[in-house]
Amino acid sequence: MTNDILDLSAKVGRALQAKGLLLVTAESCTGGGVAQAVTEVAGSTGWFDCGFVTYSNASKTELLDVSAALMAQLGSVSEEVASAMATGALANSNAHVALSTTGIAGPSGAVPGKPVGTVCFGWARGDTILTERLVFAGDRHAVREQTVVHALQGLLRIIE
């Protein structure tokens, strides 16, 4: 894990703690990388509730209440699914703030309109839900690392 990610995780932790908020993560393409990054920070038990690693579509439905019909219609890599993952994570945890990641880290998995490196993000706090879709360059490791960084940066925006 890079020092940049650790520094960003510590900044997220300070922001959450300052506002008395708990975080939940709902991750697919990052495989728990965001949860790992934030729990590297000492004292994270004060602001991190839990993380869901929902790699399969079935787990997104079973654990996060993401509509199977939504995924069938739009694919699991969509802003709508990222939004539903974040919302479902909030509903199924004790947290106040959620972030979600779903994407195609590669090297395979690309579909028309969604090349390798496509990642959708969701951030939720109360009734506020933000989503974003980006396409990152690089190999599987690079895509996943960039996704963790961007997810944490977006989290800071919704906290502050």
Automatic annotation (TrEMBL):
Domain CinA C-terminal stretches: 8-157
Gene3D superfamilies hit by this protein: CinA-like
Ranges in a coiled coil: none
Record-linked InterPro entries: CinA-like_C, CinA_C
Pfam families, sorted: CinA
Matching SUPFAM superfamilies: CinA-like (SSF142433)
Protein name: Damage-inducible protein CinA
